[in-house]
Design brief:
The complex is a heterodimer of chains A (about 140) and B (about 140).
Chain A lengths: L3 E9 L6 E8 L12 E8 L5 E4 L10 E7 L7 E8 L8 E10 L3 E6 L7 E6 L5 E8 L1
Chain B lengths: L2 E8 L7 E8 L11 E10 L5 E4 L14 E7 L7 E6 L2 E7 L3 E5 L9 E5 L6 E9 L6
Antiparallel strand pairs in B: 1-2, 3-10, 4-9, 5-8, 5-10, 6-7, 6-9
Classes of the chains: A mainly beta (about 140), B mainly beta (about 140).
């Protein structure tokens, strides 16, 4: 089975006594010692402020233990995307936002586990501007 | 300045090695001013399967953190492979973190119920959870 490692380093020097965090783990299937073996990665440039599905739950292929990396590769500091979980069953047109996670400004990234149990857990984004905004993501499960 | 770096590596999840590396400075929203407040690294031990609120969203009377930038780090510090915590925002499941796994995500505090909670997979365990918040405005700062 493949071995995929995720490593994070955080330097929090906000307080007068800095805190540094370094942590890593191998991406394993749920409750298992077997490595995750499927990966999807994409880069797409968005030119609209429309809310769009970035990763529909079906992309997880039925897995309810996935990891998602999302990066806003814009270089315009005020450009951001709002990342949400949305409900594809909520009707036609723009999906209903189930919960907003947060904003990724230019250069920001996030890395989260993703339940993807059903179509109420799509991952959607909404760019703040119609400027060209390159978004990159990796889905591993 | 507070920074966060991630590296995703795998020699064998694809035909060619995968190496994703990204470092970002944690800025305030719409700004290149670094985040300047933090609830430093904290550690708690979950012994029940009840949801434990680790970060409380704004109450309706204030907008300290509304759509501001905040960064959340959460790690399941258990060493038992099958033990996990479920991470939720406003009761919406984001995903599960098994032993040793972590997440790093933005948090918009966009509604009064957008609390972040963690729930252990089983009661009667001693499941250590570590977490940290860097922000520019937060109800319980």
């Amino acid at each position: 089975m493949p071995t995929t490692k995720a490593q994070i380093s955080i330097t929090n020097d906000i307080a007068s006594v800095p805190v540094s965090i370094s942590a890593s783990f191998d991406l394993l299937k749920a409750g298992s010692t077997e490595g995750m073996d499927t990966m999807t990665s994409k880069r797409k440039i968005y030119t609209s402020t429309d809310q769009v599905d970035l990763i529909p739950f079906g992309d997880a292929g039925g897995s309810t233990h996935n990891f998602v990396y999302i990066s806003n590769a814009s270089i315009i500091s005020t450009d951001y995307i709002t990342v949400t979980q949305t409900n594809a069953a909520g009707g036609s047109g723009t999906e209903i936002i189930v919960e907003q996670i947060g904003r990724l400004y230019a250069g920001d990234w996030m890395f989260i586990p993703w339940n993807a149990a059903d179509n109420t857990q799509d991952i959607a984004i909404k760019p703040s501007t119609a400027n060209e905004m390159p978004i990159e993501y990796v889905l591993i499960n | 300045m507070p920074t966060a770096s991630i590296t995703l590596t795998s020699a064998d999840i694809a035909g060619d090695p995968v190496n994703v590396s990204k470092t970002s400075t944690c800025y305030k929203a719409d700004s290149t001013t670094p985040l300047d407040q933090t609830n430093g690294l904290q550690r708690l031990v979950l012994t029940t399967a009840s949801a434990k609120e680790i970060y409380t969203a704004e109450n309706a009377a204030t907008t300290l953190g509304l759509n501001k930038n905040a960064k959340v780090f959460i790690k399941n510090a258990s060493t038992v492979t099958t033990e996990y915590i479920t991470v939720t925002i406003n009761a919406t499941v984001i995903g599960k973190l098994y032993a040793g796994q972590w997440l790093f995500m933005p948090w918009s505090q966009n509604d009064t119920a957008a609390d972040i909670k963690v729930t252990a997979s089983a009661a009667g365990k001693s499941m250590p959870v570590e977490h940290m918040l860097m922000h520019e405005g937060y109800f319980n700062a």
